[in-house]
Amino acid sequence: MMTLALNQVPKPLHAHGSAISNTINQVSGAIGPALYTSIMTMASQHFIQQSNETNKTLL
Predict the structure, then answer these.
(1) For residue 14, what are the contacts with CB-CB under 8 A and spacing of at least 6?
(2) What per-residue confidence (pLDDT) applies to 59?
(3) pLDDT of residue 29
(4) How far apart are CA 41 and CA 2, in angstroms?
(5) Cβ distance 17 to 9 under 8 Å?
(6) Distance, CA of 59 to CA of 40 (rounded, Å)
(7) DSSP codes of every residue in 9-55
(8) N or C terminus: fewer CB in 10 A for the chain?
(9) How far apart, in whole angstroms, are the C-alpha atoms of residue 49 and residue 4?
(10) Burial state string for 31-52 with b = 16 or more CB within 10 A and e = fewer than 16
(11) Is the pTM of this model over 0.85?
(12) What's the first-to-final CA gap in the chain, in angstroms?
């Protein structure tokens, strides 16, 4: 995919295209796990809250 994208860039701009591609790759590689962790944390907190409410009603 990266090769196809860089083939669309004119030869004199290959270095800039490669730099932009690598930057986007690094940023998305950092955002993905952070977003996943945030979603899983919110889901587990919601589960714990629901569990605590259920336990209070049973007592």
Answers:
(1) 6
(2) 67
(3) 95
(4) 33
(5) yes
(6) 29
(7) S-GGGHHHHHHHHHHHHHHHHHHHHHHHHHHHHHHHHHHHHHHHHHH
(8) C
(9) 48
(10) eeeeeeeeeeeeeeeeeeeeee
(11) no
(12) 58
Sole residue written with tokens 């730099």: 19
How many Å is the Cα radius of gyration of the chain? 22
Amino acid type, 1 = M
Residue from 23, 18, 14, 26 nearest 2 by CA: 18
DSSP 58: H
User: How many CA within 13 A on the CB side of residue 7?
Assistant: 4
Tens of pLDDT, residues 5-23: 899 999 999 999 999 999 9
